[in-house]
Write a structure and sequence with these properties.
The complex is a heterodimer of chains A (131) and B (84). Chain A has 131 residues and is an alpha+beta fold. Chain A is built from 4 helices and 5 strands. Chain B folds into 2 domains: 30 residues; 53 residues, no CATH class. The chains are: A alpha+beta (131), B mainly alpha (84). At the A-B interface, helix 3, strand 3 and strand 5 of A face strand 1, helix 2 and helix 3 of B.
């Protein structure tokens, strides 16, 4: 009975985020404290962003890339899955896959596990769509 | 006499628990850098190290840009509350 109910309400675990624009839209609609996000392509260029201002979106993309590269250098040779940085004003989450990278700025008290789950889920869907 | 000691003990206990709550709150507000490996296992970058400070500096820049795009967002409320 439970399995049937689960199947009805959770047909699959994928998002509708098949394109970078859809990924941004999906994350903004989640209501889990996500305030801003940026998707980068494999060359580190901004593919989509929640910033309406193009200049700010570009700046956000540069900083997201810099953050991931700096974190990878700090990982002591380990493969970096993702990074979470709690600052005084907000929390930043970021992760990189072969084709796409994603950075999220969330409220300070946002639940890390939820944001990280959504971050990886969106990246998996983006990767799947471009595989 | 016994009652007065009891009241003092209760007041002391209350003050200690409030102080502990304030300490916990301040602790939870401290900047923190967590690196997750590919299996999702976290490790904390020790504070006051070059790695920690540089990662934090970049992240703060990212937050500043994000907030610049939405100056009336509720994120800044945390900062105001924190400084009170």
């Amino acid at each position: 009975m439970r399995e049937r109910a689960t199947a009805v309400f959770c047909p699959d675990v994928t998002t509708t985020a098949r394109t970078p624009e859809e990924a941004v839209l999906f994350l903004r609609e989640l209501g889990t404290g996500i305030r801003a996000c940026v998707v980068l392509d494999r060359d580190g260029r901004v593919a989509a962003s929640s910033c309406e201002d193009e200049r700010l979106a570009g700046r956000m993309g540069d900083l997201a890339l810099e953050l991931l590269e700096r974190a990878e250098r700090s990982a002591d040779g380990e493969v970096l899955g993702s990074i979470e940085v709690s600052t005084r004003r907000a929390t930043v989450f970021a992760a990189r896959r072969p084709r796409w990278s994603l950075a999220i700025v969330a409220e300070r008290m946002a639940l890390s596990s939820l944001v990280l789950f959504d971050l990886h889920r969106v990246l998996v869907d983006l990767e799947g769509a471009t595989a | 006499m016994r009652d007065r000691r009891g009241a003092v003990a209760r007041a002391t206990g209350l003050a200690e628990s409030v102080a502990a709550a304030v300490r916990r709150r301040q602790q939870s507000r401290l900047p923190r850098v967590l690196l997750y490996d590919s299996a999702g296992e976290p490790s904390v970058l020790r504070s006051a190290t070059v790695d920690h400070d540089e990662v934090l500096f970049i992240a703060e820049g990212l937050v500043a840009v994000a907030l610049e795009d939405q100056p009336d967002a509720g994120v800044a409320d945390d900062l105001v509350e924190d400084e009170l």
